[in-house]
Specification:
8 strands; TIM Barrel; alpha/beta; 39% helix
């Protein structure tokens, strides 16, 4: 059976420097216990061997509980048995990755405009990660699009959308109301005193979208 994104999809994006001093795998486990149903490994500074070790570890943690996605590295994704790969907007074309991976991997594309979203759809992306939606500490002073970009992309394509950028429990309902099928977060879980409780709160708020 082909893999599909959870609905709603709560994706925890890893950053081992943003865990308030706790081991990354401990935070990931707690996040999953709180309802995270998708984990993206994004440790851009790690050499391939170390990244693969983390991929094996997170694949073990997520197995049977959450989708496991690797950022950009198709080789690491396939070697670790990941469920998918997240491609940057300027990264390898979705259609070229499909030639390598076939239907073994879900293919996501990061987009920042309606035109990029349309191109990703034409190339066969399984989901879009749309941002940057709100101001974020990882890109201080960067350009933000607001939930309006989600609405515009939602009107242009039926591909599932994950919103990213500055999303937390104060604004996650805005992106869901705008048409996102989920959200990707880092510090809204990783830097909270109780990552499990933080994840549970986010998922609860996302699930109330139909009530708004």
């Amino acid at each position: 059976m082909a893999l599909t994104l959870p609905d709603p999809a709560l994706c925890f994006v890893t950053d081992r420097d943003q865990t308030a001093g706790r081991p990354l795998d401990v935070v990931v486990e707690a996040a999953i216990d709180g309802g995270v149903n998708m984990v993206q490994l994004r440790e851009r500074d790690l050499p391939g061997g170390h990244l693969l070790n983390w991929a094996f570890r997170l694949r073990q943690i997520t197995a049977g509980k959450a989708l496991f996605i690797v950022n950009d590295r198709i080789d690491i994704a396939m070697l670790s048995g990941a469920d998918g790969v997240q491609l940057g907007e300027e990264g390898i074309k979705v259609r070229d990755v499909r030639r390598i991976a076939g239907n073994l991997l879900l293919l996501g594309r990061s987009v920042h405009s309606v035109d990029s979203a349309k191109i990703a759809g034409w190339e066969g992306a399984d989901f879009l990660v749309v941002g940057t939606i709100f101001p974020t500490g990882s890109h201080p002073g960067g350009v933000t699009a607001g939930p309006e970009l989600i609405s515009e992309i939602r009107d242009a394509t039926e591909i599932p959308i994950l919103a990213i950028g500055g999303i937390d429990d104060t604004n996650i309902q805005q992106v869901m109301a705008a048409g996102a099928g989920g959200a990707a977060v880092i510090t809204a879980i990783s830097r909270r005193p109780d990552p499990e409780s933080a994840a549970r709160t986010l998922l609860s708020l996302m699930s109330k979208r139909d009530d708004n």
